[in-house]
Amino acid sequence: MPKGARMPIRRLFLLLVCLLNLGTLLLFATALAAVEPNNSLAEPELSLSGPMLGAVEMTEAKIWVQTSREAQVRLVYWPKSHPLEPRFGRIRQSQEDAEFALTIVLDRLMPGTPYRYRIEVDGKLFGPPAGYAFKTQPDWLKRTDPPPLRIALGSCVYLNDPVADPPAPPLGGDYRIFEAIAASQPDLMLWLGDNIYLRPRDYFSPAGISDRYRQLRTLPELQNLWHSSAHYAIWDDHDYGDNDADRSYRLRQASFELFQHYWANPAYGLPEAPGVFGRFGWSDVEFFLTDNRSYRAPFRMADPHRDFFGPRQLQWLKDSLSASQASFKFVVVGNQVLNTRTPSENFYSYQSEYQDFLGWLAQAKIPGVVLLSGDRHHSEMLRLDRPGTYPLYEWTVSPLTSKAYPPFPQEQVLPERMPGSLLVERNYGLIDLSGPAGERVLKLSLHDATGKPKWSHTLHQQDLQPPKLKN
């Protein structure tokens, strides 16, 4: 074949290759268009988590909400008796670096007043037409006897996750317990720790921790309770980090920030010692929320002076109890305090700090102190008799939805346990406060997942007084 005849064939070949490549690109573009339609850049559909009622005072209330993407949020609220006089809160922007969560403060409210509110997100109103309801605390001081109060409390909330859980019988159940709590109409709910259960895959993943909180907030059985009662929380190891996690936990700061994103507590520690501790009052009661993780030395550390609360938090607790004039002072701790025989983590095992605090408490003659704790997967009332002063009581309430377990063999017989108080099943507690000033009465009761009463005990204000303060 003549040499010149090869050029047209080569050019034809190159042209065919180009056409084939162009055809491939056109096919790829067509397929991409099918997967990515023209509106592919449109924002995802907006959804809302919450609302949750947080800390409530006489003239302020905190409302927590979470959007599914960045959005502009504000609350529209009004006194229940004046539905035609709405007020509009400041517009807030939910942001991804805060998990799209917002804690909105409604201020300049009237004491003892029922309010209603709705949530406006990007101009669209969410919530029932009549609005969600809350009531501010009454301004009763120097006016009337302290008002009655009902407190719900519990710990250890395990929500099953077939993807993350091992192939074994599920550990969580009886989610209806939250509907029973809501039906009891408590003024407030105390979450005593292990409020979520991080799985091993979550321990070192802020996104994993956030997803566990989202699972809790979106549980259908919890929705009525979230907005009908005020919520206050501490943590324990399973919602702080890995099992028995302490101040060495490497996501300590991230976990603390996520706690603040998902709860609406009144305070978060001190400027020089941030944490999930703080105090608040309701009626003639004060609550002292403590942080048993952020400053705690490892449980296995061979140091007789190892920290549990740490020096700054411990001094804050002493100062706060000394300053309080409340009839009852509830010290809320993620672990048990008075149990002398358990092999598991507790305050008693940190002997130096334990003896410091209990010795100070007796010497300072602080009246009306009651300890509240969780963690143990069973409920019980402990009593420590103290020479020269009133007995110290600790009420442990656990679990809410996690599996219940009996005490360890070495604590089956426990000198501090009050006879008949041990309950090994899913349960929640109620504290009912009543009576005139100076003669206040606490009724403590345990209820199963259906709301059925299982145990109760009554404490009188006069029985929790140092001798010189008794009438």
Main sheet attributes: strand count, strand direction, barrel closure:
6 strands, antiparallel
Count of alpha and pi helical runs: 8
CATH topology of the largest domain: Purple Acid Phosphatase, chain A, domain 2
Question: What is the CATH homology-level superfamily of the largest domain?
Answer: Alkaline phosphatase D (PhoD)
Secondary-structure class? alpha+beta
The CATH class name of the largest domain reads Alpha Beta
Question: For the residues shown, what is the average pLDDT?
Answer: 92
Strand residues, percent: 25-35%
Our measurement of the CA-to-CA distance between the termini, rounded to an integer number of angstroms, reads 126 Å
Count structural domains.
2
Shape from CA axes?
globular
Radius of gyration using CA atoms only = 28 Å
Please estimate the helix content. Answer: 10-25%
Give a brief rundown of this model.
This protein is α+β, with helices and mostly antiparallel strands. It has helices spanning 6-35, 177-183, 206-217, 223-228, 237-240, 252-262, 311-323, 351-364; strands spanning 48-56, 61-67, 71-79, 87-88, 92-94, 101-106, 114-121, 124-126, 132-135, 149-154, 188-191, 230-233, 269-270, 273-274, 278-282, 285-289, 328-333, 369-373, 380-384, 392-396, 427-434, 441-448, 453-460.
